[in-house]
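Exercise 7. Given the encoded structure of a 366-residue chain, write a plausible sequence.
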């Protein structure tokens, strides 16, 4: 299945739905309504200062994200839809293009290009992430781009939420993958305290404690073998088309002004080496993020530490990431500003050099 062809068809359908909604005389506004067309926008401008331990320092000013988001419901039907585009990068200009219908109760059916329900970091909108980049576990153990074309079932049961998606495996990035027959992704979230939040819990002004736990997985048919698929790159000497098994788990809490997020991933793979033999590869990673709300809706302190080992049998392939910073908020009616000032350090290999990055990023969302 060609994602670009299906995406173009879905886009045409969604534009028709949006046009029919607006033409019918319903409001076009950034507010929630059963027959409203909601229009959102996101712009992120960042400046990086890179200070490698080996090599010359460099800096760059760039647009991190530039998105338009259209969501709405078709009047007098059970259909809702979403179209989201990305103008800052060419490798995934179309982010979301799906249609959803309610089957009964809380059970919903969604068709189109959408986020795969596996890792909590990819379920978090960019303007809600504490740091400007997602965790090391999402980089090492997630599907490229986190999105794919497929069909999903979703539902809520009491204090829990679940989703199951069957996707074609080509991914949302360009060029597309051609070595995956399909992907099966699933996620389950349980609220231990407070409401269900299917996202990273960043420090925010809340009058109640929150505690959520979640688990997820990716499954796929690669190279004619049923297994679990995750990393876009296999360890050196291994066939990346062989099958992988990856599971995810996370714990997210906020009590008072303190928020803590823990997430981990484990992968078991049977991969063909250079001699065409099947050899096991074990991989794991985790990320810990903490935040403290210094002043409600104004400023927060954030810190994180992450570690990933893509091959436990290799001696020198572990990567460590750590960092900290400040987040400044400004919210107004219908839109908000956010400024991140953060430091991130990366050590590649057990005895590798320490590379430094200092980033300032301004986010505007509507």
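Solution.
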């Amino acid at each position: 299945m060609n994602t670009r062809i299906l995406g173009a068809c879905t886009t045409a359908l969604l534009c028709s739905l949006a046009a029919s909604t607006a033409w019918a005389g319903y409001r076009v506004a950034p507010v929630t309504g059963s027959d409203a067309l909601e229009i959102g926008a996101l712009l992120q401008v960042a400046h990086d200062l890179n200070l490698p331990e080996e090599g010359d320092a460099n800096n760059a000013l760039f647009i991190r994200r530039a998105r338009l988001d259209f969501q709405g419901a078709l009047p007098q039907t059970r259909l809702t839809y979403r179209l989201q585009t990305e103008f800052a990068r060419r490798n995934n200009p179309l982010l979301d293009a799906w249609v959803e219908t309610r089957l009964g109760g809380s059970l919903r059916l969604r068709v189109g290009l959408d986020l795969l329900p596996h890792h909590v970091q990819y379920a978090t909108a960019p303007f809600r992430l504490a740091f400007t980049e997602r965790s090391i576990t999402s980089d090492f153990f997630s599907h490229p781009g986190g999105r794919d074309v497929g069909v999903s079932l979703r539902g809520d049961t009491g204090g829990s939420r679940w989703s199951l998606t069957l996707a074609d495996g080509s991914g949302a990035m360009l060029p597309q993958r051609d070595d995956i027959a399909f992907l099966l992704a699933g996620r389950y979230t349980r609220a231990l305290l407070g409401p269900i939040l299917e996202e990273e819990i960043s420090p925010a002004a809340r009058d109640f404690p929150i505690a959520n736990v979640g688990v997820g997985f990716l499954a796929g048919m690669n190279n004619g073998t049923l297994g679990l698929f995750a990393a876009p790159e296999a360890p050196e000497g291994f066939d990346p088309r062989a099958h992988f098994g990856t599971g995810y788990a996370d714990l997210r809490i906020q009590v008072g002004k303190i928020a803590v997020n823990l997430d981990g991933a484990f992968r078991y793979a049977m991969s063909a080496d250079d001699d065409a033999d099947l050899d096991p590869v074990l991989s794991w990673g985790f990320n810990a993020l903490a935040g403290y709300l210094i002043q409600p809706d104004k400023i927060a302190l954030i810190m994180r530490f992450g570690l990933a080992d893509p091959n436990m049998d290799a001696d020198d392939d572990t990567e460590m990431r750590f960092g900290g910073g400040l987040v400044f908020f400004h919210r107004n009616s219908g839109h908000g500003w956010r400024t991140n000032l953060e430091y991130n350090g990366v050590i590649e290999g057990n005895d590798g050099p320490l590379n430094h990055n200092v980033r300032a990023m301004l986010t505007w969302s509507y």
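Remark. Residues 3-23 form the longest helix (21 residues). Students should compare their own answers with the one above.
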